Amino acid sequence: MNRYLLIVLFLVIAVSPSIGQQKRALEPADYAIWNQINRQLISNDGKWVAYVAEPGEGAGNPTLSLYDGTTDKTQTMQRADAPRFSADNRFLIYTLHPDKESVKEMRRNGKKKKDLPKDTLVVLKLADQSSIKVPGASNVQLPEKWSDWVFFKVENEIKKDSTTKAEERTDLVAHQMSTGNQAILPAVEDYVLAEENASAASISKGFEGAIEPGVFYLDTNAKQWLAIHEQKGAYEQLSIDRQGTQVAFLADFDTTENRIDYFDLYHWNKGSSAPEKIADRADTFLPEGWLISKNGRLKFSKNGERLDFGIAPPPVLEDTTLLPEEKVSVEVWNYQDKTLYMKRQEVQHKGF
What we know:
This protein is mostly beta strands. It is built from four helices and 24 strands. A four-stranded antiparallel beta sheet has the order 1-2-3-4, with no helix packed on it. Strands 5-6-7-8 form a four-stranded antiparallel beta sheet, with no helix packed on it. The protein is globular. It starts with a helix and ends with a helix.
């Protein structure tokens, strides 16, 4: 009997603490502090691993971890994101964000978006851990198959003289990571990188006193942008072939105010002094009245022997001779709509 009571007493003592220590249910706030592992990548030689730990939305800043397989050590970078290794395994680039809470506080205090702190591009040399930082860099591209160059845009405010208001200008920077040399192209609209070899092309809209509008090609040996064609006009659909030896683009050099844009197709070979116009609206292969489409993407074939482009019928233009009361408006609605179009318009006008 005493032995039985002793066993029961032991069980009560053993179970009692666990009864008072029941685990609480998870709450939404708990999920916010969990980290997610994102953007895992390994260098081409397998010696470096990078990944980003991100807390729940609005809960904090991301942390970038960099593992060195040679030394078996890991270092962390706070507020860092978007890591990428260079193709030759010598560099790691990533984005350094401003502190989220600091930015939120600035916004609460009425800071305008243009006055908020910007992201910073960091280029880290893996061998000695030296780095450079570029505040405000955007539209960053790192070639996947060729090395030593990183491309990014920066915003600048340029004053032509002391009497004029500063103008904003977007410049393209081609940065050579091994030397720190830079080739800068002002007033850039678009740029593309070759897939296989160290080459790039870009469109500049021009900036008075600095550069004429045109298409430019990066000579990585000379470390400078070379003009393929400079002329006032509109440029669209820039393309470069895989080897970086051919460039194609659309251009309309008619600066008068036409209601229709007539774009021509141009092709340039590396080493040529000027591009060649290879298609326009007068070509006989086009259906009657059709145009070279400014919205059709230009694309070289893998071997560079073919160039695809788009064609389109002329746009339908509004009759500008009609008076407002002579113009016909057509509204389309479906019988399955919950509210008739007329009723929706009435609600909108009342501001509901």
